[in-house]
């Protein structure tokens, strides 16, 4: 093989870029990571956004899919400083009457708190939890012949329908609301097909692995991945913005941890007309408006379960959440949006000064929106936690434009690297036998715009690197 400066270059240092680089470096190759920012991490960074001593996760916060990742579980990340703290309750879903539904580690314990829906939850989630460890490699990867076809078919019968269709199985508002909060992570109308899939994966992850909080912030995941990569001889260069291929050192393979829009701006002249056409048609989804707070005390939720939860889903009933998501998808800004809130400092005292706390939240907004949703989000929190506003010491906000400026992969505030609907669940970013290959030999895409999509799990990068190893280096894992 012709001598090059490096065997492989990875552009972008988010979890997928780091996973791709590690997978390549593990095979004894020389690998360079190039990051345009001064610090690595992509969506897994932690900063003092509000006041000194208050450490906020800039993007990703609670990491259920990281705990469930079949790839991360093979890496010695604990040896490189990664520690997970586990909330008492994975996720809570409060209602206006002061009660709450919760997701806990045990299927049975969660079901037992759902009243008339106890048996339904057990019958619905029990088989998913039982089969999830065997299914995870197929669920968190590209479309291919499954290792467990019968189990995957059974999963698909529950994952393919819309969240709204599955909600009809439940009788109680508690079960329906809990399901709404889980499936609204899909960031699309709950009437869309496959919106149940993300709810199933998140619930199964909670029941099996928990929804952990990385000690010291999401940046701890980045630091551990980077330290492991460098311990094997890998090289990381920050402050290197790639705008064209001519800037790059020579390499046999280049993997891009970026979305189709940026990839086209860098390498469109290398692609076939058909591949370019497909990337141009790639669809981005709703954006998010995010708020971080420095607090004088913990959030005073009325429901005691919420005071023990790492994640809280705000929006009450299935009907209300479904209506707000549908309205947002049509370009609106609901007055009572679905709000995803995390309170990491309850379980990690390194996040804030003694006696103080941090909180992190976002709501969905139309892609590219610059509407300030701060007051609306705070009203939703106050709805379930009277007195919350009095505890705010400082806040920091991101609209969709600011999120994209922070991380170019968040196009229009889309944190999933493109909408994860039926049309782009596996055929992302293009319809291909291998979604990680581009039409140009040696160029690959390894971002969340490839299967399995968004989340801190490294699977997109790992699968893309495996493809490059087979294609270019003739190494089969």
If you had to describe this structure to a student in words, what would you say it looks like?
By secondary structure, this protein is an alpha/beta fold. It folds into 2 domains: 6-82 and 214-283 and 418-471, FAD/NAD(P)-binding domain (3-Layer(bba) Sandwich), CATH 3.50.50; 86-212 and 286-406, Polyamine Oxidase, Chain A, domain 2 (Alpha-Beta Complex). The chain has helices at residues 15-25, 64-68, 107-112, 118-139, 149-159, 163-167, 173-183, 195-209, 219-231, 260-267, 273-280, 318-329, 374-384, 400-406, 459-471, and strands at 6-11, 31-34, 46-47, 56-57, 84-85, 89-94, 100-103, 213-214, 235-237, 251-256, 287-295, 309-314, 339-342, 357-365, 392-398, 443-445. The strands form 4 sheets. A 7-stranded mixed beta sheet has the order 7-6-12-13-14-11-15, sandwiched between helices. Strand 3 and strand 4 (56-57) form a beta hairpin. Helix 1 (15-25) packs parallel to helix 9, helix 1 (15-25) packs parallel to helix 15 (459-471) and helix 4 (118-139) packs across helix 5. The mean pLDDT is 96.
């Amino acid at each position: 093989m012709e001598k090059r400066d490096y065997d492989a270059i990875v552009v972008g240092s988010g979890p997928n870029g780091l996973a791709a680089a590690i997978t390549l470096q593990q095979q004894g190759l020389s690998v360079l990571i190039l990051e345009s920012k001064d610090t690595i991490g992509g969506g897994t960074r932690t900063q003092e956004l509000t006041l000194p001593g208050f450490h906020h996760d800039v993007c990703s916060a609670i990491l259920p899919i990281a705990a469930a990742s079949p790839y991360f579980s093979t890496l010695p990340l604990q040896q490189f400083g990664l520690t997970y703290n586990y909330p008492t309750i994975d996720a809570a879903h409060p209602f206006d009457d002061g009660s709450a539904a919760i997701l806990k580690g045990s299927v049975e314990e969660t079901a037992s708190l759902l009243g008339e829906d106890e048996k339904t939850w057990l019958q619905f989630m029990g088989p998913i939890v039982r089969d999830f460890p065997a299914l995870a490699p197929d669920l968190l990867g590209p479309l291919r012949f499954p290792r467990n076809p019968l189990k995957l078919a059974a999963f698909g019968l529950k994952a393919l329908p819309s969240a709204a269709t599955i909600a009809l199985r439940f009788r109680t508002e508690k079960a329906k609301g809990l399901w709404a909060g889980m499936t609204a992570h899909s960031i699309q109308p709950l009437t869309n097909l496959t919106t149940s899939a993300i709810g199933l994966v998140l619930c199964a992850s909670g029941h099996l692995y928990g929804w952990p909080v990385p000690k010291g912030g999401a940046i701890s995941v980045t630091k551990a991945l980077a330290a492991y990569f460098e311990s094997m001889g890998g090289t990381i260069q920050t402050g290197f913005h790639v705008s064209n291929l001519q800037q790059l050192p020579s390499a046999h393979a280049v993997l891009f941890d970026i979305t189709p829009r940026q990839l086209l701006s860098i390498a469109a002249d290398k692609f076939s007309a058909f591949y370019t056409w497909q990337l141009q048609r790639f669809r981005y989804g709703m954006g998010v408006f995010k708020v971080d707070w420095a607090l004088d005390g913990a959030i005073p939720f009325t429901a005691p379960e919420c005071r023990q939860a790492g994640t809280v889903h705000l929006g009450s009933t299935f009907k209300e959440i479904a209506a707000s998501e549908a309205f947002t998808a049509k370009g609106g800004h609901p007055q009572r949006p679905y709000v995803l809130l995390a309170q990491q400092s309850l379980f990690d005292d390194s996040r804030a000064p003694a006696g103080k706390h941090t909180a992190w939240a976002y709501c969905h907004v139309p892609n590219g929106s610059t509407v300030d949703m701060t007051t609306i989000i705070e009203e939703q929190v106050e709805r379930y936690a009277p007195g919350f506003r009095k505890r705010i010491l400082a806040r920091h906000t991101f609209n969709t434009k600011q999120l994209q400026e922070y991380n170019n992969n968040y196009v229009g505030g889309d944190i999933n690297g493109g909408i994860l609907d039926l049309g782009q669940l596996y055929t992302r970013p293009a319809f291909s036998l291998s979604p990680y290959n581009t039409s140009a030999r040696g160029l690959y895409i390894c971002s969340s715009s490839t299967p399995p999509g968004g989340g801190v799990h490294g699977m997109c990068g790992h699968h893309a690197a495996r493809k490059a190893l087979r294609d270019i280096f003739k190494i089969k894992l």
